[in-house]
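F.,

This is the one I mentioned.
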């Protein structure tokens, strides 16, 4: 690999951009109570403590016989049968074990007082008179799940900031919780800019005017936002007039936590969103040292009547730049706004660049020309455990994103020779 070219002056590192972006964002305050069945994908707003021990009682992990191990050891060694004094199915509670006897017991049933082990039925032989011969001496404690061995009463089982999924919801239910306190979803308004844009469904492919293109960014941005837990208002294409842009942004700011736009952030580009955001609040335009996705705008819009600020981010218009910039910058911002922590958030597991830990995998391609910017290449894992490169890495080629299953994070100034280990980020890890 060749080494580090100096970064172009004026470009900001991804880490700096992210720390500025997150420095201007606090978790949103809203909470609501939701049925545990409805809380998939939501973020827990408070720590959940267990009100009980789990399991709640010592119980058998096998179908077999509950015994007092010391008492039956001699009988087992001598091949002597023992009487069965009671039968305990799951959900029933048996009396104290009678001395000199065994209790028939089933998986999940409470172990009776006086018993300290369970002999599984495969290690026992039922005699014609119904008594039981143990084929081995039981080891004290065997096949008993102890009270509280999974969870102790009062223990924090799920931390505030955890994104709830099937396992967390099942766990909450095992503690008897039918409802959970969750954060309200961030409300995000999505705008597209660009006179060339046409909405799919409005104009058929054969009727497209010269120079027109379909608005693809709207479709993936709305879905990316929803997958990250947002409630999305798709506000279409901003009318290309100053007054209309001001009115649309101000109205969106009143009822949303974040406004996301795509297009119109290139240097010197004439559009109405940038000056409008500036007028209604403030914004910065950054040139970030990443490829694809250099231009990025960040800012805020004041709400009327001192009710705080609405965050603003402006993504580049090129579809791949828009997609990648979203994953690198908007995703960590949304995790922060939702207060996601506990192994899932940017704060706990990710580096200063907001990315989860990468996998080091061998490149099955050459990348002979280094760039001065940090590059994010569209690649796919192959059956041999290596990475294949999509042949066209241009920032307008959305087929590369559809084809890939992850991104190679290539430091600025670096080339790749076939066989080099590179840092791979599975796309799936960045979509939630
Ligand atoms: P811009 O960032 O506005 O200079 O746009 C860069 C490129 O992305 C141009 O080729 C635009 O036509 C294209 N583009 C902008 N917005 C969209 C969009 N919503 N969907 C698809 N392509 C877009
Ligand atoms: Mg444009």
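My design for it:
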């Amino acid at each position: 690999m060749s080494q580090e070219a100096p970064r172009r002056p004026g470009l900001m590192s991804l880490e700096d951009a992210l720390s500025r972006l997150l420095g201007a964002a606090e978790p949103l305050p809203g909470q609501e109570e939701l049925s545990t069945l409805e809380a998939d994908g939501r973020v827990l707003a408070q720590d959940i403590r267990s009100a009980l021990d789990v399991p709640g009682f010592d119980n058998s992990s096998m179908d077999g016989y509950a015994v007092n191990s010391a008492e039956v050891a001699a009988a087992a060694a001598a091949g002597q049968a023992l009487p069965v004094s009671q039968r305990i199915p799951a959900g029933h509670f048996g009396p104290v074990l009678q001395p000199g006897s065994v209790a028939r017991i089933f998986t999940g049933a409470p172990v009776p007082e006086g018993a300290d082990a369970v002999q599984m039925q495969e290690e026992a032989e039922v005699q014609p008179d119904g008594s039981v011969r143990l084929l081995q001496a039981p080891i004290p404690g065997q096949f008993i799940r102890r009270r509280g061995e999974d969870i102790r009463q009062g223990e924090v089982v799920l931390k505030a900031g955890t994104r709830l999924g099937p396992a967390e919801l099942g766990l909450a239910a095992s503690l008897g919780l039918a409802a959970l306190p969750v954060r309200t979803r961030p409300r995000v308004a999505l705008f597209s800019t660009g006179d060339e844009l046409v909405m799919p469904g409005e104009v058929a492919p054969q009727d497209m005017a010269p120079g027109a293109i379909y608005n693809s960014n709207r479709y993936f941005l709305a879905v990316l936002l929803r997958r990250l837990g947002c409630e999305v208002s798709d506000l279409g294409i901003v009318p290309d007039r100053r007054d209309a842009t001001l009115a649309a942004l101000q109205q969106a700011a009143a009822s949303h936590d974040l406004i996301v736009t795509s297009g119109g952030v290139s240097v010197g580009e004439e559009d109405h969103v940038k000056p409008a955001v500036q007028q209604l609040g403030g914004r910065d335009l950054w040139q970030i040292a990443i490829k694809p996705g250099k231009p990025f705008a960040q800012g805020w819009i004041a709400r009327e009547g001192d009710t705080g600020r609405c965050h603003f981010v402006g993504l580049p218009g090129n579809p791949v730049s828009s997609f990648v910039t979203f994953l690198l910058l908007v995703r960590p911002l949304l995790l922060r706004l939702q207060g996601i922590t506990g192994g899932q958030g940017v704060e706990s597991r990710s580096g200063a660049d907001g990315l989860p830990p990468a996998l080091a995998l061998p490149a099955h391609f050459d990348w002979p020309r280094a760039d001065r910017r940090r590059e994010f290449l569209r690649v796919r894992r192959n059956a041999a455990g290596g990475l294949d490169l999509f042949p066209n890495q241009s920032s307008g080629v959305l087929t590369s994103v559809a084809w890939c299953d992850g991104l190679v994070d290539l430091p600025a100034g670096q080339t790749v020779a076939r066989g080099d280990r590179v840092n791979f980020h599975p796309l799936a890890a960045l979509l939630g």
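Confidence is low (pLDDT under 50) at residues 1-7, 342-348.

Talk soon.
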